[in-house]
Amino acid sequence: MLQISQRINAMAASATLAMSQRSNELRASGVDVINLSVGEPDFNTPDFIKEAAKRAIDNNFSFYSPVPGYMSLRKAIAANIEATEGVTFAPEQIVVSNGAKQALCNVILATINPGDEVIIPTPAWVSYVEMVKLAEGVTVEVPAAIDQDFKITAGQLREAITPHTRMVLLCSPSNPTGSVYSRDELQALVDVLKDYPDILILSDEIYRHINFTGAYSSMATFPEIRDRVVVINGVSKAYAMTGWRIGFCAAPLPIAKAVTKLQGQYTSGASSIAQKAAEAAYLGPQQCVEDMREAFERRRDLVVSLAKEIPGLKVNEPQGAFYLFPEVGGFFGKRVGDRVINNGSDLTMYLLEEAHVATVDGAAFCLPGYIRLSYATSDDLIREAMRRIKEALAALH
Ligand code: PMP
Ligand code: GLU
User: Fold this and answer.
1) Where does a domain end: 284, 313, 346?
2) Does a structural domain hold residue 340?
3) For ligand 1, atom 12, which residue shows the shortest CA distance?
4) Of ligand 2's atoms, which has the minimum distance to the CA of residue 175?
5) Of 30, 60, 111, 270, most Cβ neighbours within 10 A?
């Protein structure tokens, strides 16, 4: 008998990646599927970044890199954080990894002991809970539904804290909701956290540049908690570089060292060529980031206005990222022919198989009764997808 470990058996597969794969398979079999499941920019990586990667190959950046990344990249990241957030991290506090995903998992594995509690506001990105499980930590979910714009309050946070709490994992702009915490809202959370010096704040700021509010506060900008904030970011979303696999943590030095130790035994430094591309991204002209941000904002307006025209969908107005998280509970219990829609999984399957639009069940983000749509696609495909969804939902009785 081949054994699979309990650790892996206990883990759920990534629902976002699974749904995207299913949609790609259906497309390969000739079905015209619109994929609103996976969250990644549809833009190509800007040319000046691609050129830097080509130069890196020609200049023989083909050897192992230092485990935490090239010092030149870590300096470029520190300079970028200083310029965008107005806070200083030493390059030694930056550890570059294979995407923000590994950066997050590194920090969790490097800081969480079995039984430690990690507070996660939900809905939350699919991988957080599984990463905490991997570290044998205990997730404490703090739910915030659409009626509170998917944002937790200071009171909810205080109530969730116990003597076992070791981490709070925040994500703003949020995947899967697009909600963005204002500085005042974050300050209220900080006012709670400042009373608990043993809690690490892990702040996933990967959508930081895809923000429509005109204002942004990194968690690292609050002096009361500054020495125990870990910021996660990377090039995947801001520079349309999901496949290059470069992310980082900016952390207190002992955590950066622990993460480096883990990474040194596990994956070594990230791809040398991708690192040189990321360095060019951070040091080069930043207009591409703004251009893509504007495109996402326009698409947000489009998808929200179309969603509002669909009877039975309840939507808010997301302020960042590229996701819409409509409430769909009203369709549960309905049917079309022999098909009964009992939950979000049934509904997303129905939309995939009948409307040929791939979405993700809200249950994968710890909030059943919703679905997630990624609108990082063209205006035409957004229009067509929403037309199909409207038609398919209208057929349910
Ligand atoms: N955090 C969030 C909230 C995300 O949506 C993603 C995208 N999958 C990641 C982290 C990981 O990004 P990457 O590994 O591509 O840098
Ligand atoms: N963050 C993206 C998403 O939520 C990419 C897929 C993943 O890594 O889970 O769809």
Assistant:
1) 284
2) yes
3) 100
4) 4
5) 270
Q: Is 265 in the same domain as 376?
A: no
If you ran DSSP here, which 8-state letter would residue 223 be given?
Answer: T
What is the span of the domain harbouring residue 169?
49-284
Query: Same domain for 88 and 185?
Result: yes
Closest ligand (CA of 374): 2
Where residue 146 sits, what CATH number does that domain have?
3.40.640.10
Which residue among 19, 23, 175, 360 has the greatest number of ligand 2 atoms within 8 angstroms of its CB, and so is best to mutate? 175
User: Residue-wise pLDDT tens for the chain (397 aa)?
Assistant: 899 999 999 998 888 888 888 888 999 999 999 999 989 999 999 999 999 999 999 999 999 999 999 999 999 999 999 999 999 999 999 999 999 999 999 999 999 999 999 999 999 999 999 999 999 999 999 999 999 999 999 999 999 999 999 999 999 999 999 999 999 999 999 999 999 999 999 999 999 999 999 999 999 999 999 999 999 999 999 999 999 999 999 999 999 999 999 999 999 999 999 999 999 999 999 999 999 999 999 999 999 999 999 999 999 999 999 999 999 999 999 999 999 999 999 999 999 999 999 999 999 999 999 999 999 999 999 999 999 999 999 999 9
98 lines ligand 1 (CB under 6 A): no
What is the C-alpha to C-alpha distance for residues 386 and 324, in angstroms, rounded to an integer? 12
Residues 242, 359: one domain?
A: no
Which residue out of 14, 16, 204, 205 has the highest number of ligand 2 atoms within 8 Å of its CB and is therefore the one to mutate?
Answer: 16
In a domain, 1, yes or no: no
Which of 284, 308, 324 is the endpoint of a domain?
284
Q: What is the CA radius of gyration of the chain?
A: 21
Render 67-135 in DSSP notation, one character per residue.
Answer: TT--HHHHHHHHHHHHHHH-----GGGEEEESHHHHHHHHHHHHHPPTT-EEEEEES--HHHHHHHHHT
pTM of the model: 0.97
